Amino acid sequence: MSLPSLPANFGAENFKAATKYTAPVRRPIEPVGRYFLAHASRALRGHTWSEFEKIEAEKNVNTVDETDENADLGDEEQDAELLAHDPRDWKTADLYAVLGLSHLRYKATEDQIRRAHRKQVLKHHPDKKGAKGGLDQDGFFKIIQKAYETILDPSKRAQYDSVDEKANVLPPPPKTDYDFFEAWTPVVESEKRFAKKQVVPSLGDANTPKAEVEAFYAAFYRIDSWRSFEFLDEDVPDDSSNRDHKRYIERKNVASRKKRKAEDNARFIALADRLRSEDPRIKLFKEAEKAEKERKKWERDAGAREAAAKAQKEAEEAAAKKEAEEKAAAALKADSKKAKEAAKSAKKKNKRAIRGAPKDAGYFGDADKAEAIDSDVGFLIESFDDLQLSDVSGKVASGDAAAIKEALATIAKEQTASGKVPAAILKYFV
Amino acid sequence: MTVIGVSFGNTTSSIAAPAQDGKGVEVIANPDGERAIPSALAYVGEDEYHGGQALAQLIRNPKNTIINFRDYVGQSFSKVDPTVTERASHAIDLNGQIGFQVTKSNEAGEERTETVSAEEATVRHLGKLKAAAADYLGTEITGAVVAVSTDFTEEQKAALVKAGDAAGLKVLQIISEPSAALLAHASVEDRLEQDKTYVVADIGGIRTDAAVISVRGGILTTLATAHDYELGGDKLDDALAEFIAKEFEKKYKVDPRKTARSLAKLKDAAILARKTLSNVQSATISIESLADGIDYHSTINRLRFELVARNVLSQLTGFVENLVKKANLDTLDIDEVLLAGGVSFTPKLASNIQFIFPESTVVVAPSLDTKASNPDELVARGAALQATLLENFDEEEIKESLSPVIVNTQHISKAIGIVNAAGEFVPILKQETTYPIRRSIQLDAPKGDVLVSVYEGDQKVKETVLEPAAKDEDDEDDYSDDEPEVVREKHFLPGTKLADLAVRDIHEGSKVEVTLNINKEGTLQVSAREVRQGSVAFRGEITY
């Protein structure tokens, strides 16, 4: 093992204190051995002790605990009735109370039982009672010994615990007002103690998640109970007197054990059923489940609902479109009629204008030929298409005779050239 | 002019004195040759019997035999358990004190009833012990150190001193049994100088006591104690006696538990068989006229006994395990388990206790280590060792040494040490070390300047799971539920940094000596110097 090198940034200082060390504990040391004596003589010769130090050394000493190890057992006194209990009927006595353990009952550990027994022996030993004057006072001591024998032996203790009614917590009376968890938790705990395998979870509280609640009920219903009823057996008589009677009693015991076990199982199932039926969490879960179901159904139907809505919307849209189109068509129709009429009237107007133009221009000085001109213009007008009509009507609108004549002559040439008007029927404009 | 050590037990007592050859101490025998002398007195006619002779009276004359009176000294009747005297003269209430009623008769055969208080019985007993020692050593006994259990109250100790005075045996000091046993064990081969934590289990006849004791710098500190007033060798004997009784009943259809005499015979045979089975594999049980004039004769082997006594043995193991818990320690913290008391010879007990501790813990018992000292004698030898040490002190000095100001000392709560180049914590002072103390270690150092970092150490349990060794192919179909073995180890880790100290100008290949010194005021002085003549020490101080 070696020491590390000094880091370069340590600085010029040689010693740097970081923190104080953890406060020491004052304890007595064993005054034995040469090292102790050396310590003592060093201390005695080297120093004078001030009063203060002496007082300090006596106080605040963390001594090894030699006192009352039995604090957990409490100071239970047996009542007079129990003390006077007939030792022959020891089975009917409350064996835990006999040992002063009625506050612990089935929870008492082996160590506590031993210590409790010892405590009772110290108090009730017949030698001590005898010293006080009474003679036949060992009755209770016999019960103590019986109780100790019973409770210390694990199998006998299981038998006794099975019938230890005082350890059972009764369920709250039905149809009364009580807080579910407050009333039932001790009941569940007391029932759970009969489970062969201590893996049953606790009842929990109002906020326990569903999975845990369900796990609890699954485990609770499935408790494999070790409860048995041997302790209540009738005493089997010695077989020397009457063997048949002995066998009869034995059979009776077996039958009554079975009967009691069956009754207990039925009782437990009824209790568990009642517990479950009263559990507010189960009710909540059921409601939540129902709501969830409805929500699911709602979700499942969403597709169809959407399709229906879409179809309706489409139908509405189609109807609206159709209506609009119809309206537009109607409007268009009305418009074209008007235009046609307008065009017609415009045509009429144009035709009238063209027809009237030669007359207005005084027949270009050829009034004698007026009939021929009118006839020619009539033929020409009949042969015009709309464009030519408007074109010509524009040209003749100037009122200038020469221009009108020129325009009419030009159009007449075009019309004859294109074959729309046979040249033969024209008399003036050739 | 000799001082002796006395182990005063409920069941047996022992005396030890400085050895004749001047080396160490030895346990001495009474005139009957007993080294473990039964703490018993019996009255027959005008005569008083002591030791083994008195114990033999339990069968014929139980009403006039006094046993198990040690715990009654200085106690009031209301506080004690009278059941332990059930098979002998019953404890009675003597104006609040405890006494025994015995019947004596004179030569003419006139009977008279006398009461013997527990204190008187103690006086008689101590007187006999003193006489035995004086006979053996051939010198006057000037004083004794007496070892008793840790739960002896001040009143009980005062009563014991008074009884000693009355018996002419000056009690120099009363020490506790576990520390006496440990002192005897650790005084060999300088074990006292090694900082270790011990469990001392004293398994007696009618009660069992145990203590966790840490040894730091040769000074013993008790960290926890536990007592069981019902567990002990008697329970083993009862189990064995019950077994014999059942066998007998099965064979002869006679219940041997009906009369007190038969019970006493059963018990006597059981004790003998148990002691024999500690040394050899099988023992003969032979009881004459156990019940209805029928003799019983059979053999029992060790395995059968271990089965019969399994319950009690496991309780004893559990008792030790609980004590370690009570001391807030892990079984890994215990370096050695020292078994004291006659029952410790039982091989199964030692192996059971070894089983609950890790392999690193040494269990000191004769069946596991042939060199272990006799567990029956440990306490007496420890007391004698203490007595020889006290020889040079006068009464006043001893009294002053036991004053609280000397005995109640400060113990550091955490280990203090330094961190080496690899970053590991090297403890110099272990936790529970009492001060004033000075301890140094030497470490290698590189050339140039080095850093000494003082830390408090934290202990951490490391668990390594050992995978079971790979199986052979042909083992495959065998069902195996081998659990993987978990190896637990406890390591020191550097905890809080207390200080840094620079040590400068180290020569090539040199060593550095680091010294931690806590003075009586609790100031921790750290100093470090190169191991070289004329080198300068670098130092600093911190407090708590």
Strand content of chain A: under 5%
Compute the separation of the termini of chain B in Å: 48 Å
Helix content of chain B: 25-40%
Structural class of chain B: alpha+beta
Low-confidence residue ranges of chain A: none
Give the overall form of chain B.
globular
Major sheet attributes of chain A: none
Number of domains of chain A: 3
Annotated CATH architecture of the domain at 3-169 in chain B: 2-Layer Sandwich
Class by alpha and beta content of chain A: mainly alpha
Instruction: Give helix % range of chain A.
Output: 55-70%
Tally of separate helices of chain A: 16
Oligomeric form: heterodimer
Q: What is the CATH C-level name of the domain at 3-169 in chain B?
A: Alpha Beta
Number of continuous helical runs of chain B: 12
Subcellular location (chain A): Cytoplasm
Biased composition (Basic residues) (chain A): 345-354
InterPro entries (chain A): DnaJ_domain, J_dom_sf, RAC_head, RAC_head_sf, ZUO1-like_ZHD, Zuotin/DnaJC2, Zuotin_N
Biased composition (Basic and acidic residues) (chain A): 295-344
